[in-house]
Write a structure and sequence with these properties.
With 148 residues, the protein is mainly α. It is built from one helix and no strands.
Length: 148
């Protein structure tokens, strides 16, 4: 069996050291620096992305704060405008109500005057008619008394 032949051990050990030394130099001088460079580039890219994310997060927070402040201002202005419109409409309503009430009072006074005038005329007519009716009744009663 060739693996148990001790005459080739020295040659195998020599080539083992040569191969291992060559691979070690290749790894330490070429491959490991390239891997380290890639890892450093990735780390730098990740750090840069994280920094950009922090800046964007701060900008988004600032924008959100301004938005919330704008919403609060808009809400306050809306409430003030609604209150002003309500007050204005209330004053206008009261003014209109007072005008209508004054107009109704004038109409009521006019109607009261017409009713009083009509009532007076009706009483006068009633008095005249009762006098005429009384005279006619008296005449008819006299005629009835003459006929009997």
């Amino acid at each position: 069996m060739p693996q148990f032949d001790t005459s080739v051990y020295l040659a195998q050990i020599f080539w083992l050291f040569i191969s291992f030394g060559f691979l070690y130099l290749m790894m330490s001088r070429l491959i490991c620096p390239m891997i380290e460079e890639v890892l450093s580039e990735r780390e730098r890219c990740i750090q840069q992305t994280l920094n950009q994310a922090e800046v964007l997060t701060a900008a988004a927070d600032d924008l959100n704060n301004r938005y919330q402040a704008y919403i609060q201002i808009a809400e306050k202005e809306k409430n003030e405008k609604i209150q002003a419109a309500y007050t204005r409409l209330q004053k206008k309503s009261i003014t209109q109500e007072n005008r209508q009430e004054a107009l109704l009072r004038r109409r009521i006074r006019t109607m009261d005057q017409k009713i009083k005038a009509t009532s007076t005329l009706l009483r006068q007519e009633s008095d005249k008619l009762s006098g005429v009716l009384a005279a006619q009744l008296a005449t008819q009663i006299e005629r009835m008394g003459d006929d009997v």
